[in-house]
């Protein structure tokens, strides 16, 4: 547990940042009045997500490895963090879906049928629901975390002299 204390801390920070992001999306109207823009603007989440991954890996390098971390050590840390994010994802998605913005699914279902992204409400409901989002966010956070770590560690690793 001591070995992954930093990853646990950053997984919690990341989950909180995700909830704040979704709350800001809701406040800005992206889950209601401006739902047509949600598809595009929600992708901006990648910037704080990458930033948090970088901060987590820097924290691990500085405070666990005393400023010297190999690519492999960083990759393992990132994979552990990604697993933790994946584990927290269904809970985070539940809070988003049922506490922060319970109107999102009905709104996006209605609008996606109006715009003919889906032919029927049932088709849209099959895609826009808690279970579907919980599964896809779990997979996304794991894959995103591992890929981001693999790239970030190219720059953060300690090079041999």
Automatic annotation (TrEMBL):
Q: What top-level branch of life does the organism fall under?
A: Bacteria
Q: Name one Pfam family in it.
A: DUF4199
Q: Which UniProt keywords apply?
A: Membrane, Transmembrane, Transmembrane helix
Q: Which residues form a coiled coil?
A: none
Membrane-traversing stretches? 7-24, 39-57, 78-100, 133-156
* Official protein name in the record: DUF4199 domain-containing protein
User: Origin organism of this chain?
Assistant: Sphingobacterium suaedae
Lineage of producing organism: Bacteria, Pseudomonadati, Bacteroidota, Sphingobacteriia, Sphingobacteriales
């Amino acid at each position: 547990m001591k070995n992954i204390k930093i990853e646990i801390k950053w997984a919690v920070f990341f989950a909180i940042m995700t909830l704040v992001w979704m709350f800001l999306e809701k406040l800005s109207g992206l889950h209601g009045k401006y739902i047509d823009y949600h598809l595009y603007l929600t992708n901006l989440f990648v910037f704080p997500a990458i930033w948090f991954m970088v901060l987590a890996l820097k924290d691990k390098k500085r405070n666990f490895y005393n400023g010297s971390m190999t690519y492999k050590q960083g990759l393992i840390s990132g994979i552990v963090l990604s697993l933790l994010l994946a584990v927290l994802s269904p809970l985070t998605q539940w809070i988003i879906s049922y506490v922060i913005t319970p109107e999102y699914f009905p709104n996006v279902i209605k609008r996606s049928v109006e715009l003919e992204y889906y032919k029927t409400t049932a088709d849209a409901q099959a895609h826009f629901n808690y279970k579907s989002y919980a599964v896809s966010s779990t997979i996304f956070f794991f894959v995103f975390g591992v890929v981001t770590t693999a790239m970030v560690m190219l720059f953060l690793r300690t090079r041999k002299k």
